[in-house]
Amino acid sequence: ITTFVDETKEEIQAMKLANEAAMARLIEEIQVMKLENEAATNSTAQKILEIKLENEAAMNSTAQKILEIKLENEAAMNSTAQKILEIKLENEAAMKSTVQKIQVQMKFENEKVMNSTKVELKNKTDTLAGNLVVAEEKLVNEIEGLKLRAKDVLIVSSEEELREPGCARVCAGTTKRGDTDWGDWSGTGVYTYVDISQCGFVTIPTVTTSLEGSGQHYDSTGVTNIYSLTTSGFYVNVLDSDTQTGSDANSRQWTVDWVAAGFTC
Prior knowledge:
Layout: H1 2-152, E1 168-174, E2 183-185, E3 189-195, E4 206-212, E5 226-227, E6 233-239, H2 246-251, E7 255-263
Antiparallel strand pairs: 1-7, 2-3, 3-6, 4-7, 5-6
């Protein structure tokens, strides 16, 4: 038993020593790993620091570039503003020059138009003066003619109120021979309308009529009897037993001769 115990103690002691050796190795490995980790950590920190420094340098470089770009932009803006100012001044000078040229040209054109207008007005004035002289002469002649007519034509009575003697007029005429517009009148004769509108009467005139033809009218009656007299015309009816149609009257060359006296103003 003693031997067994001793052997057991020896085994336990050997196991203890083996465990202590294993623990020592483990601690040593852990220590090595710790140192390696610390070295790796220090290396990482160094790299991080280097990256940080590089980033800061890059940021500073970028800021410097931004500043340079800003300064360049400001310089470009100042240069552009200067150019714009120069262009503005040039435009203003050009506008002033153009305005002056236009004013001079307009003044010249206006003077030219004015001179032309003056000449035209003078010509028109001379023409009007000449026309006025002609019109005045014509009016004088018409007045003289009216005076002569007033002496030649005297109307002492009228169907309407008498007018100025100078307005009296005698007007005469005849219907178309062989082509008078005769109409049939109830189988006992013929009738026609006589147009005196060209005389220009403004009051009912005094009219005298007669029948003229190539034959068969010596015993006709009624031609001196006037119907529906106006300032423009009148009707006459002719009774004749041998002439009862318009064609009969025209075949005999019947016409109505008339003389009218009235006022034209």
